[in-house]
Design goal:
The protein is mainly α. It has two domains: about 70 residues, 434 Repressor (Amino-terminal Domain) (Orthogonal Bundle), CATH 1.10.260; about 55 residues, no CATH class. It is about 60% helix and about 0% strand. The radius of gyration is 16 Å and the shape is elongated. The protein starts with a helix and ends in a 12-residue tail after the last helix.
Length: about 130
């Protein structure tokens, strides 16, 4: 499941809505919504995420968080490191080749460490599933 999919599902369930309701409102199949949640489809377009925010009646911070999670939920990200330091290329490959060996908690710790290096303060709660 992608971070976007997990958050969208949680918001939908908290409101007592179904995946079928969502598909009908957005004009897509419930199978598409499920595939989007699980990373079997590419990340949604900004316009589609806006429609989801309208459907869920999200405002301000909740809508911005869902949009950010959509940007960060590409199921197959690629990293161009050709013009970067050799350490960057090595780090990108090390992570790509070993991400499946890390637990959710280890991924969270690594995520928080990288956020600290980048001085980003986005608070992402990965335990928000319903």
């Amino acid at each position: 499941m992608t971070p976007f999919g997990m958050k969208m599902r949680s918001l939908r369930q908290k409101r007592g809505l179904t995946i079928k309701d969502q598909g009908i409102f957005l004009g897509v199949s419930s199978a598409y919504i499920s595939a989007l949640e699980h990373g079997k489809r590419g990340r949604p377009s900004p316009a589609f995420v806006d429609q989801i925010c309208v459907w869920l009646e999200l405002i301000w911070d909740e809508a911005e968080l869902l949009k950010y999670l959509a940007q960060m939920s590409h199921p197959s990200p690629s990293l161009a490191t050709a013009s970067l330091a050799p350490e960057a290329t090595f780090l990108a490959n090390l992570l790509a080749q070993n991400i499946d060996r890390l637990s959710a908690d280890e991924c969270r710790q690594l995520f928080e460490a990288v956020q600290g290096y980048l001085k980003q303060e986005k608070n992402i709660d990965f335990s928000d599933s319903a």
